[in-house]
Design goal:
With about 240 residues, the chain is of the alpha+beta class.
Length: about 240
Protein backbone atom coordinates (compact mmCIF):
# COMPACT_ATOMS: atom_id res chain seq x y z
CA UNK A 1 0.00 0.00 0.00
CA UNK A 2 2.88 2.33 0.89
CA UNK A 3 4.47 2.12 -2.58
CA UNK A 4 1.18 1.65 -4.44
CA UNK A 5 0.05 5.05 -3.18
CA UNK A 6 3.21 6.66 -4.57
CA UNK A 7 2.88 4.98 -7.96
CA UNK A 8 -0.63 6.37 -8.43
CA UNK A 9 0.47 9.98 -7.94
CA UNK A 10 1.27 12.16 -10.97
CA UNK A 11 3.68 14.45 -9.12
CA UNK A 12 5.97 12.75 -6.65
CA UNK A 13 8.03 14.29 -3.90
CA UNK A 14 11.73 13.56 -3.55
CA UNK A 15 11.02 11.24 -0.62
CA UNK A 16 8.50 9.29 -2.68
CA UNK A 17 10.89 9.03 -5.61
CA UNK A 18 13.63 7.68 -3.35
CA UNK A 19 11.40 4.97 -1.93
CA UNK A 20 10.22 4.01 -5.43
CA UNK A 21 13.83 3.87 -6.63
CA UNK A 22 14.96 1.82 -3.63
CA UNK A 23 12.14 -0.67 -4.19
CA UNK A 24 14.51 -2.24 -6.73
CA UNK A 25 17.25 -2.43 -4.05
CA UNK A 26 15.57 -4.20 -1.10
CA UNK A 27 18.45 -4.00 1.45
CA UNK A 28 18.88 -0.30 0.69
CA UNK A 29 15.11 0.20 0.93
CA UNK A 30 15.09 -1.36 4.38
CA UNK A 31 18.14 0.64 5.46
CA UNK A 32 16.59 3.93 4.34
CA UNK A 33 13.36 3.10 6.18
CA UNK A 34 15.26 2.28 9.36
CA UNK A 35 17.40 5.40 9.07
CA UNK A 36 14.20 7.44 8.99
CA UNK A 37 13.13 5.71 12.18
CA UNK A 38 16.53 6.33 13.79
CA UNK A 39 16.58 10.09 13.31
CA UNK A 40 16.26 13.07 11.00
CA UNK A 41 17.71 12.47 7.53
CA UNK A 42 19.59 15.08 5.52
CA UNK A 43 20.39 14.23 1.90
CA UNK A 44 23.45 15.77 0.33
CA UNK A 45 25.04 16.13 -3.11
CA UNK A 46 24.47 14.04 -6.21
CA UNK A 47 21.01 12.58 -5.57
CA UNK A 48 19.72 16.12 -5.07
CA UNK A 49 21.30 17.39 -8.28
CA UNK A 50 19.71 14.46 -10.12
CA UNK A 51 16.31 15.44 -8.72
CA UNK A 52 16.80 19.10 -9.57
CA UNK A 53 17.95 18.25 -13.10
CA UNK A 54 15.24 15.75 -14.00
CA UNK A 55 12.52 15.68 -11.33
CA UNK A 56 13.19 11.95 -11.47
CA UNK A 57 15.88 9.55 -10.24
CA UNK A 58 17.72 7.46 -12.83
CA UNK A 59 20.79 5.23 -12.57
CA UNK A 60 22.05 6.54 -9.25
CA UNK A 61 25.57 5.45 -8.30
CA UNK A 62 25.14 6.41 -4.67
CA UNK A 63 23.04 8.24 -2.11
CA UNK A 64 24.77 10.23 0.63
CA UNK A 65 22.94 10.67 3.90
CA UNK A 66 23.60 12.57 7.12
CA UNK A 67 21.49 11.43 10.07
CA UNK A 68 20.81 13.25 13.32
CA UNK A 69 20.26 10.16 15.49
CA UNK A 70 17.48 10.47 18.09
CA UNK A 71 16.42 6.83 18.42
CA UNK A 72 19.31 4.75 19.77
CA UNK A 73 17.37 1.48 19.51
CA UNK A 74 16.93 1.76 15.74
CA UNK A 75 20.48 3.03 15.34
CA UNK A 76 21.87 -0.05 17.11
CA UNK A 77 19.67 -2.26 14.91
CA UNK A 78 21.09 -0.64 11.79
CA UNK A 79 24.68 -1.18 12.89
CA UNK A 80 24.03 -4.82 13.82
CA UNK A 81 21.66 -5.98 11.04
CA UNK A 82 23.44 -4.70 7.92
CA UNK A 83 26.79 -5.70 6.45
CA UNK A 84 28.28 -2.23 6.61
CA UNK A 85 31.77 -1.11 5.69
CA UNK A 86 33.60 2.06 6.67
CA UNK A 87 33.99 4.68 3.97
CA UNK A 88 36.95 7.02 3.44
CA UNK A 89 35.26 9.79 5.41
CA UNK A 90 34.81 7.63 8.52
CA UNK A 91 31.13 6.98 7.90
CA UNK A 92 29.24 3.81 6.93
CA UNK A 93 28.74 2.23 3.52
CA UNK A 94 26.26 -0.35 2.21
CA UNK A 95 26.76 -1.93 -1.24
CA UNK A 96 23.50 -3.02 -2.80
CA UNK A 97 22.99 -4.23 -6.40
CA UNK A 98 25.03 -1.48 -8.01
CA UNK A 99 23.86 1.19 -5.58
CA UNK A 100 25.96 2.51 -2.69
CA UNK A 101 24.46 4.09 0.42
CA UNK A 102 26.92 6.22 2.41
CA UNK A 103 25.76 7.63 5.72
CA UNK A 104 27.13 9.42 8.76
CA UNK A 105 25.75 10.52 12.13
CA UNK A 106 25.54 14.31 12.04
CA UNK A 107 28.01 14.84 14.88
CA UNK A 108 30.49 12.44 13.24
CA UNK A 109 30.55 14.25 9.91
CA UNK A 110 34.21 14.21 8.85
CA UNK A 111 34.78 17.98 8.95
CA UNK A 112 33.17 18.28 12.40
CA UNK A 113 34.77 15.20 13.91
CA UNK A 114 38.23 16.35 12.81
CA UNK A 115 37.49 19.93 13.92
CA UNK A 116 38.14 21.33 10.46
CA UNK A 117 34.79 23.13 10.62
CA UNK A 118 34.26 24.44 14.14
CA UNK A 119 30.76 25.41 15.20
CA UNK A 120 28.30 24.60 17.94
CA UNK A 121 26.19 21.43 17.51
CA UNK A 122 23.13 23.65 17.08
CA UNK A 123 24.72 24.94 13.85
CA UNK A 124 25.71 21.55 12.44
CA UNK A 125 22.81 21.24 9.99
CA UNK A 126 23.04 24.71 8.49
CA UNK A 127 26.84 24.40 8.29
CA UNK A 128 26.79 21.14 6.30
CA UNK A 129 27.17 23.11 3.07
CA UNK A 130 30.58 24.23 4.38
CA UNK A 131 31.84 20.64 4.73
CA UNK A 132 31.98 19.74 1.01
CA UNK A 133 34.89 20.17 -1.40
CA UNK A 134 33.01 21.61 -4.39
CA UNK A 135 30.39 24.35 -4.35
CA UNK A 136 28.15 22.29 -6.64
CA UNK A 137 27.95 19.67 -3.85
CA UNK A 138 26.77 22.29 -1.34
CA UNK A 139 23.13 21.26 -1.56
CA UNK A 140 21.34 19.76 1.46
CA UNK A 141 17.74 18.61 1.88
CA UNK A 142 16.01 18.09 5.23
CA UNK A 143 13.83 15.10 4.37
CA UNK A 144 11.50 15.42 7.37
CA UNK A 145 10.86 19.16 7.17
CA UNK A 146 11.21 19.56 3.41
CA UNK A 147 13.80 22.35 3.77
CA UNK A 148 16.53 23.03 1.22
CA UNK A 149 19.94 24.45 2.14
CA UNK A 150 21.15 25.29 -1.35
CA UNK A 151 22.16 28.95 -1.71
CA UNK A 152 25.81 28.07 -2.47
CA UNK A 153 24.75 25.45 -5.03
CA UNK A 154 22.35 27.89 -6.68
CA UNK A 155 25.08 30.51 -6.95
CA UNK A 156 27.38 27.95 -8.58
CA UNK A 157 24.74 27.10 -11.15
CA UNK A 158 23.95 30.77 -11.83
CA UNK A 159 27.56 31.94 -12.18
CA UNK A 160 28.66 28.72 -13.91
CA UNK A 161 31.84 28.76 -11.80
CA UNK A 162 33.04 25.52 -10.19
CA UNK A 163 34.78 26.49 -6.98
CA UNK A 164 36.23 24.94 -3.82
CA UNK A 165 34.43 25.29 -0.49
CA UNK A 166 36.58 23.17 1.85
CA UNK A 167 40.07 22.62 0.51
CA UNK A 168 41.12 20.29 3.34
CA UNK A 169 40.03 16.90 2.06
CA UNK A 170 41.52 13.37 2.24
CA UNK A 171 40.49 12.57 -1.35
CA UNK A 172 41.76 15.43 -3.51
CA UNK A 173 42.45 13.37 -6.69
CA UNK A 174 38.97 11.84 -6.51
CA UNK A 175 37.46 15.29 -6.17
CA UNK A 176 39.53 16.59 -9.07
CA UNK A 177 38.18 13.76 -11.22
CA UNK A 178 34.66 14.63 -10.10
CA UNK A 179 35.32 18.31 -10.80
CA UNK A 180 36.30 17.56 -14.40
CA UNK A 181 33.19 15.45 -14.92
CA UNK A 182 30.85 17.99 -13.33
CA UNK A 183 32.48 20.88 -15.21
CA UNK A 184 31.74 19.14 -18.50
CA UNK A 185 28.28 17.97 -17.49
CA UNK A 186 27.05 21.43 -16.50
CA UNK A 187 29.25 23.50 -18.84
CA UNK A 188 31.05 25.23 -15.96
CA UNK A 189 34.39 27.02 -15.69
CA UNK A 190 37.04 26.33 -13.06
CA UNK A 191 37.65 28.98 -10.39
CA UNK A 192 41.18 30.28 -9.87
CA UNK A 193 41.28 28.48 -6.53
CA UNK A 194 40.34 25.15 -8.07
CA UNK A 195 42.83 25.63 -10.91
CA UNK A 196 45.62 26.31 -8.41
CA UNK A 197 44.81 23.14 -6.45
CA UNK A 198 44.90 21.08 -9.66
CA UNK A 199 48.18 22.73 -10.71
CA UNK A 200 49.73 21.68 -7.39
CA UNK A 201 48.47 18.15 -7.97
CA UNK A 202 50.05 18.15 -11.43
CA UNK A 203 53.40 19.23 -9.99
CA UNK A 204 53.33 16.40 -7.48
CA UNK A 205 52.25 13.68 -9.94
CA UNK A 206 53.72 13.63 -13.45
CA UNK A 207 51.27 10.89 -14.48
CA UNK A 208 48.25 12.66 -13.08
CA UNK A 209 45.98 11.88 -16.03
CA UNK A 210 46.66 8.18 -15.50
CA UNK A 211 45.99 8.58 -11.77
CA UNK A 212 42.65 10.19 -12.54
CA UNK A 213 41.79 7.47 -15.06
CA UNK A 214 42.46 4.78 -12.46
CA UNK A 215 40.30 6.62 -9.92
CA UNK A 216 37.51 6.95 -12.48
CA UNK A 217 37.53 3.24 -13.28
CA UNK A 218 37.68 2.27 -9.61
CA UNK A 219 34.83 4.55 -8.58
CA UNK A 220 32.47 4.23 -11.53
CA UNK A 221 33.46 0.76 -12.80
CA UNK A 222 33.59 2.15 -16.34
CA UNK A 223 35.24 4.81 -18.47
CA UNK A 224 33.12 7.96 -18.65
CA UNK A 225 35.85 10.34 -19.79
CA UNK A 226 38.71 9.07 -21.94
CA UNK A 227 42.36 9.68 -21.14
CA UNK A 228 42.46 12.12 -24.07
CA UNK A 229 39.61 14.19 -22.66
CA UNK A 230 41.16 14.23 -19.17
CA UNK A 231 44.50 15.33 -20.63
CA UNK A 232 42.80 18.09 -22.62
CA UNK A 233 41.13 19.38 -19.46
CA UNK A 234 44.40 19.32 -17.52
CA UNK A 235 46.20 21.10 -20.38
CA UNK A 236 43.65 23.91 -20.31
CA UNK A 237 44.24 24.33 -16.58
CA UNK A 238 48.01 24.49 -17.08
CA UNK A 239 47.72 27.34 -19.58
Amino acid sequence: MFLKKYKNMNTKTLKELIYLYLEKHPPAFKLFYMLEKAGNIYLIGGVLREFRDNKELHSLRDIDIIIDVNNDEYWRKILSEFELKKNCFEGYKLFCSGLVIDFWPLDETWAYKNQIIKCSPSKYVESLTRTVFLNIDAIIYDLKRGIWYDSVYQQAMETKILDVILEWNPEIPLNVMRAIMLKRRYNLTYSIKLKNIIKEELKADKDYSETLMQIQQMRYKKVILSTKVIEEELMQIKE
